[in-house]
Design a protein that fits this description.
By secondary structure, the chain is mainly beta. The chain is built from 5 helices and 15 strands. The strands form 3 sheets. A 10-stranded antiparallel β-barrel has the order 3-6-7-9-10-11-12-13-14-15. Strands 5-4-8 form a 3-stranded antiparallel sheet, with no helix packed on it. The protein has a two-stranded antiparallel ribbon with strand order 1-2. Helix 2 packs across helix 4. The chain is elongated, with a radius of gyration of 36 Å. The relative contact order is 0.13.
Length: 419
């Protein structure tokens, strides 16, 4: 199958020098010497050559008990290549590392095979190949959902800070994948882990004496609190592990299905200042653990002599085990609430990837690609600022909102190896 050749490829076939040498040596065994006749024509004088002609000249290679190896030894001693099978008729052991030695101890006239040789022999006997990928990811996320957080009274309809304006800086992280591919069918199993940490959005609000305030409905039910300046911070991180089964349905397309876990954590905090001193502090942490199944397609789109293009599309439905904790600190002291739910909601995740693969050798490729992941039905801090109550002197009311969503996308660069 085309997919198998692309994923499990290898070097071009070449005849071995050992076989060529054996054939030449066998032919020389039964041939005599060539001499020039007196009239200048080339004559061949055969010694102990059978009368039935050319057919028997290959008997030493194809049917005669005398092997090509022993023919070589008779002329050149026992200087055979390393690992060349012994012609000792009393020894019944395959060469180290061959499939015959898989899973058993070989006692030969040489050192026994090592563990790596035996594992290699078992692998060759299984008819499968392994593929390993290691990529570096550089990802961006979109701004979180939510409305106005801080108003500016110095201008009409002033908007000092809104959730939609908190775009984050890129985050980096690794992605590791391992595949075991059946060379005959193209079917495969896959395990992939990725992580991207420290998406960060910092929004300082410059000094405006008493001009900032929390517009209705405020944060945790606190409104109308004036302050001079503030610092807002939004951070997030992503982790994912998946285990998939790939099934070849055409030469260039494989269907996949499997289990996936996705973790999305996000934190919002804001510290306000009034009269040169710290005033109120707000902080919300959200945790989303998504467990579920996914299906998708893995396709080989285009192949040339110098590059090939692969793509993958996945979509899944997940149970979100989510929680949020919020903390409000004023002049009196800290007051906090915590809310969780399991399952919090039915979440959705979709992934798309496109990679260009450039061969560096018969078993090593360079991969450059695009990665995109969409999550919906998750809890995000900017969605928790309204709807719950942490007001001094009043009962605390904790809620959790899971109608958020995030798009994470970026580029990848890595290597792919096959063995």
């Amino acid at each position: 199958m085309t997919l198998v050749r692309e994923y499990c490829g290898g070097g071009p076939w070449r005849p071995t020098l050992i076989l060529a040498g054996a054939v030449l040596a066998a032919a020389a065994t039964h041939a005599g010497t060539a001499a020039l006749a007196g009239n200048g024509t080339l004559q061949t004088v055969f010694s102990d050559h059978p009368a039935d002609g050319n057919a028997s000249s290959f008997d030493g290679v194809l049917g005669d008990p005398e092997s090509a190896a022993s023919t070589l030894n008779g002329r050149f001693g026992d200087e055979r290549p390393a690992g060349f099978p012994s012609d000792n008729p009393t020894t019944s052991c395959a060469a180290p590392g061959t499939a015959e030695c898989c899973g058993e101890s070989c006692v030969c006239d040489r050192d026994p095979p090592g563990l790596l040789q035996q594992l290699h022999a078992c692998h060759e006997q299984s008819g499968a190949c392994w593929i390993g990928r290691a990529d570096a990811l550089l990802l961006w996320r979109n701004a979180p959902p939510g409305g106005l957080i801080v108003g500016n009274n110095s201008i009409v309809g002033g908007n000092a800070l809104s959730a939609g304006g908190m775009d984050s800086t890129p985050a980096a992280g690794p992605r590791f994948s391992i595949f075991r591919v059946n060379k005959s069918t193209g079917n495969a199993i896959e395990a992939t882990y990725l992580r991207a940490a420290n998406f960060r959005s910092l929004r300082p609000l410059g000094a405006l004496s008493g001009q900032y305030e929390l517009p209705t409905p405020g944060i945790y039910g606190n409104t109308g609190i004036p302050f001079d300046n503030a610092n807002a911070d939004l951070g997030a991180r992503l982790q994912s592990f998946e285990f998939n089964r790939h099934h070849g349905i055409t030469q260039n397309i494989r269907f996949l299905a499997g289990f996936r876990w996705i973790e999305w954590q996000e934190q919002f905090s804001m510290q306000t200042y009034a009269g040169g001193a710290a005033a109120d502090s707000f902080q919300t942490n959200c945790y989303n653990d998504l467990y579920g199944g996914q299906i998708g397609l893995d396709a080989n789109l285009l192949k040339t002599q110098w590059i090939r293009f692969d793509s993958v599309v996945k979509a899944g439905v997940y149970s979100n085990v989510g929680a949020q904790s919020s903390l409000y600190v004023d002049a009196i002291g800290p007051t906090g609430v915590y809310a969780s739910d399991s399952p919090l909601s039915c979440a959705f995740a979709g992934e798309v990837g496109l990679n260009g693969v450039i061969p560096l050798s018969s078993r090593l490729d360079l991969r450059i690609g695009y990665f995109g992941l969409w999550l919906s039905g998750i809890a995000q801090p900017t969605r928790q600022l309204n709807g719950q109550q942490i007001v001094p002197g009043e009962p605390n009311v904790a809620t959790i909102n899971a109608n958020g969503g995030v798009l994470v996308q970026g580029v990848s660069l890595g290597l792919e190896g096959r063995w």
